[in-house]
Structures are given as structure tokens and as C-alpha cells.
Amino acid sequence: MTIPDREADFWDQVVERSAADEQALRILANDLCDPAVPWFKDLDLDRFVEAVFAHIDPKPGMRILDLGCGKGFLSVALAHRGAVVEGVDISPRSIGYSIRRAETSGVSDRTTFTVMDCKSLTFEDESFDAVCGGFVLHHLDLENAAQTVGRVLKPGGKAAFIETMGLNPLLMLARATLPGRLSIQKESSDDEYPLDRARLAKLQASFPGHVGTSFPQVVFLRMGGYLPFLDNRWGIGLMTGLDHLIARAPALGPLSYYGIVTMDRGSVPEC
């Protein structure tokens, strides 16, 4: 089985296990967390969504690509803000789920969802004002991803992605050794790897513009919630408080398991 086939199969299975009732499908205009994944709010992922939106600055009529759209949350949220959104994903079940969400949320007229491999986008050059994504880059060939984002962005266009980061050695050690032990289930596919410094450098080397990172909040100790003895209200509350304390020191942002990757294409120089 090829890597694209494995990824499609993995995410098809994830979507198959997802809630599909109207409450989970419907995204409201001001939602910053996916109602189908309510525990995301415990990880402050609304702060990361805010950061993505602040960077790409969606406006009515903007054409935005949601790369690896998954279950369509970012696409629908952006359409609520007036953008015209193209969502692509390698998983057919993800695309079906996204179409249902857009219909349930009343934005199907501003969204289009297509099964497509992110490394082989069929869109024309310079066809999008902005590109975004949630947890997609670390699944891709980064040289190809950087070149592709740079190709489809208009001059001066911006991209922003919520990503799994590999800058914390302790978390990388835990990721490599704990799944399958201590009743911890493996939640990742076999063909992904968090973005460490070498991978971020590869993005920068292949992108026609500036690549940056930021950390709207620190999600470090909360990853301990995968340990059964910490997966409770008291344990999560304590770890959340400590993460928020760490986040007060901006230099400690890279300890976070999640971060924002921005990619800003340069403008065409004036003659």
C-alpha cells in the first residue's frame, strides 16, 4: 500500500468513528473550536484557530485553500466569514463529512470540497489569496508542500497552519516510546512526523517567501493526559494551569506540542 493510500485509509477510519449528528456537524458563525472534537477546547486550540485567522485575515470574497481540510471545520468557519473556500483532502470520507457540515451550517454556496492529494494540486498558479490548514504539513513531503503553497498563492498572499511541533525533546521521546504502553493508544498515522528545526528549515528553503512560527498558547504538560492516572478533571486542570504559567515566558513557546507555521509569499517587485 502506498503512503497516500495508507493516509487515506487511516483518516477514513478516523472519520468513520466521528460523531455525525446535527449538533456535531453544525458550525456556528463564531465557533473557534470544532464541535465534533469538543476536547480540543481543553487544549486551547481555539487560540490557535484565532491565530490562523488573524494571520490570513479572511474577508468577504477572498479565495482561500484549506489544505488537508479533514472534517471541514476551518473551511466552514472561513465561509461564515465570507470567504470562498476550496477544501481538499486525500480521504474520501473526510470530504463527504465536510460537504455535510457545509450544508448543515448553511455555507455550501461558498465551499467546494474535493478528494485530492496535496502533493498534486490541480489548481492554477496564483489562484488563492490565502492558504490554511490544520495538522497537515507534518504529513507531507515538505519540499513539495512549500513549493505547492508558493505556487498557488497570489503574490503577497499568506498561509497559516496549526501544526504538531517537534521542538520539545521530552515530548518527542514520549511520542517515540509510550504509545502501546501504559494503556496509551497510538493516535498518529505511520507516515507523519512533527515539525522539528530541520523540517522547518526545509520548508523555508523551498518556499518563495518567509516561513515563521508562533505559539499562541503552550500545550506541553497537558499531553500527559494520555496517561491514565492523569486523565481526570484534577490532573488535566493542574496541567492546564502549569501550561498557562509556562506560556507567560514567550521564550518557552517551543516547548508546546502545537504551534502555528506561517508562510508569506513575497510581492512582485514594482518595475
Automatic annotation (TrEMBL):
InterPro entries, per database record: Methyltransf_11, SAM-dependent_MTases_sf
Stretches assigned to the Methyltransferase type domain: 65-161
A GO BP entry: methylation
UniProt KW Methyltransferase keyword: yes
Keywords: Methyltransferase, Transferase
Superkingdom of this protein's organism: Bacteria
One of the Pfam families matching this protein, by short name: Methyltransf_11
Full protein name: Class I SAM-dependent methyltransferase
Originating organism: Mycoplana rhizolycopersici
